[in-house]
């Protein structure tokens, strides 16, 4: 039986190897589904986002309703899914992976220098959770 943790590990392994494909049959639906809580980022990007979050007092956006069991919110804490457009609350300082993401049926390597990037848990990094 494949667990949530198996799926999470697989997704992180794919990101660390520079491969991603979060599209629906190769087409972007602008749904925000690619706005993951786990993103490859450089230390410079992390520092820039920290400054932006503090300066603009940006609070964590939660995407799950409270439940009695522990759950994983796998969506970026900066993605405001209550809006049709302009969902990203840190758009001007978003990570390079977000800037270069291309909706594609093919799995393409991220156009960057992977040795600089490590997968970051956005909630843990920016909100200590």
Question: Would you mind describing this structure in some detail?
Answer:
The model has no long low-confidence stretch (mean pLDDT 75). The protein has four helices and four strands. With 129 residues, the chain is α+β, with helices and mostly antiparallel strands. The protein has one domain. The strands form two sheets. The chain has a two-stranded antiparallel ribbon with strand order 1-3. A two-stranded antiparallel sheet has the order 2-4.
Total number of distinct structural domains? 1
User: How many helices does DSSP assign?
Assistant: 4
Question: How far apart, in Å, are the first and last alpha carbons?
Answer: 28 Å
Query: Strand sequence of the main sheet, in spatial order?
Result: 1-3
Describe the largest sheet: 2 strands, antiparallel
Instruction: Indicate the multimeric state.
Output: single chain
Helix content: 25-40%
Uncertain ranges: none
Structural class: alpha+beta
| Number of DSSP E strands | 4
Q: What sort of overall outline do the alpha carbons produce when their principal axes are compared?
A: globular
Backbone CA Rg = 15 Å
In terms of DSSP E residues, the strand content is 5-15%
Write the element-wise H/E pattern from the N-terminal end onward: HEEHHEEH
**pLDDT average, as an integer?**
75
